[in-house]
Amino acid sequence: MPQSVDARAEKKPSRIQLRNRRKILEAALDVFSQHGFRGATLDQIAEAAGLSKPNMLYYFDNKEAIHVELLSALMAEWLAPLEVMDPDGEPLEELLGYIRRKMQMSRTYPRESRLFANEIIQGAPRIGPDLNQRLKPLFDEKCALIRIWMQAGKLTPMDPGHLIFSIWAITQHYADFEAQVQVLMPDSAVAWDTAMQHVETMFRTLLSAE
User: Fold this and answer.
1) Could you tell me the residue range of the domain that residue 55 belongs to?
2) What is the pTM of this model?
3) Which of 74, 121, 126, 133 sits most deeply, having the most CB atoms within 10 A of its CB?
4) Nearest to 165 by CA among 198, 135, 132
5) Same domain, yes or no: 80 and 29
């Protein structure tokens, strides 16, 4: 019996198709993180991916479709370190663990961090719904948890929301301003080791209730 249109549409992509999609997204990540959404072009992405522009448009309808797919995957990665903060854990260590994870993400995924920063600076035109539907509930949940810990005397009292903002600002600085950090501290291995120690010591001192 011939396959229905729906069955054909649901056919899994081939290995070549999956490989080409990965190449496009990897190339787009480089281009978007360097030039932002407005400055990036399909020609730049196609050249970086080693594909013709018509071939690339077989996989994605336009530049925005590529950007949205990258941002959607990035949002899941960005939320994960906050999601694993354990309400039953030791409060100071849970927050310091979150800070370590954020620092490691900045070290491992600087392009992704810059992609996200560029989107937010532009007013979040493509990721706005994700901020409202995915980030905001998680942010509120973790702020409530941190407030409980503070009220129990386990952390220094302060505004939980602004504490999280401060963690983001400091940890993501090392990714978003990577070029500046590399000029000022050329030995990147030493710079990262001292950064990890400095940031942890700073927040441990700030948050310790004793």
Assistant:
1) 1-60
2) 0.83
3) 74
4) 135
5) no
